[in-house]
């Protein structure tokens, strides 16, 4: 580059700098004029925070998901005597249940009081272990009087605790009204019903709230009337891989009794999470283990409808039978029958006739339901 070219280049740079300075001066003058006319002003005491980064959003989402899932590995034990060593209690309880994934941690929750036992919260490594522990404990409580008083419920999130308190309050209102009317009923309100009733409330008239609650209570009372029962019989051909389907079916159809054949339950520890996942809230199960390939019987029933396994002296060879006593408006026996396909039909009919002859001598009415292949 020659000397003249360098001089020309410097002159152009100086000219551009002068133009830029003039533009900045004009801009500052325009801004000052706008502010003096109150068209543009700085908002007082305003601190603008930068928008969250993508990393912050992802971290917050993951933390919320982990917090939401963590309570699903926790269980709440009630009516557990407060001793100096809860570790020994949990170890003995697991030995009694023959359940060996020991809880990884535990703690007493609530303030210590002399008139009641604090709740014991236990945590497991996985949701599967927590569900298995609950299912196993529910079974052992019916067989072992030493742990019969212990209650195990899933841990709830903060939102679920709020909804649960609302449902208990609504149920208390319904029960008080039923008691005042002289009815021998008790009611419970699930979280879905709680939200529905909460949406119908008004803030102006308290009596309107109670009236709407009692209106729903009358509907629930009619459904709880045991003079008529909804009974369904299904052959799921193994419940082991259909727990969600059966649970959804019960929630949708709301049967009082659901009789199942070919459950394929074996009585091993692996059955516990299956049963727990299959039963919605408010339902219990009576079942008989499979005696051969493809067998197994069960009756899923409402907890408010007492159903107990009944002794049956007749032992058929061509079919399986589960006999239970149902204490409804009129107590009766129910027999769920499943004819084993490999057995001769004539043998089945002969044994069934002999069985009915024995059952006819009993004073209680009898309902027989099942699947004959």
From TrEMBL:
* Protein name as catalogued: Endonuclease/exonuclease/phosphatase domain-containing protein
InterPro entries assigned to the protein according to its UniProt record, in alphabetical order: Endo/exonu/phosph_ase_sf (IPR036691)
This protein's species is: Capitella teleta
